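Can anyone check this?
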Amino acid sequence: MEQKEHYNVVAAVIVEDGKYLCMQRCRSVYNYVSEHWEFPGGKVEDGESHHETLVREIKEEMDWDVYVGRLLGSVEQEYPDFSITLTAYLCKGGEGDFKLLRHLDYRWLEKEQFDTLKWTEGDKKLFEFIP
């Protein structure tokens, strides 16, 4: 059996005024994550810390600075074509507005409103860690 790729991924759970930033992924070849909702972040590169990854990814995806706070938790997720270890950090957004460079849409939602969106399976597992 062929070994699936495994990725270490970090997510920024950005909170402002009691609402969390939720991002809609662009269309993808993988229909099980295509146009689903997620917390912003991305893959950890070799030799990079989680903190460095979040700062880099948010800058690349949103042209925004992010302040990385405490670790919230990690989950494992198996998808049909790959697997991930997804680690979330509580974060604060920087000054000014961000841009949608690699996402279709965004929402600021209270935790109780998360289930109104179609989330990736991995990100959905992070809900239990969110204050």
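Reply from J.R.: I decoded it. The two ends are 40 Å apart (CA to CA).
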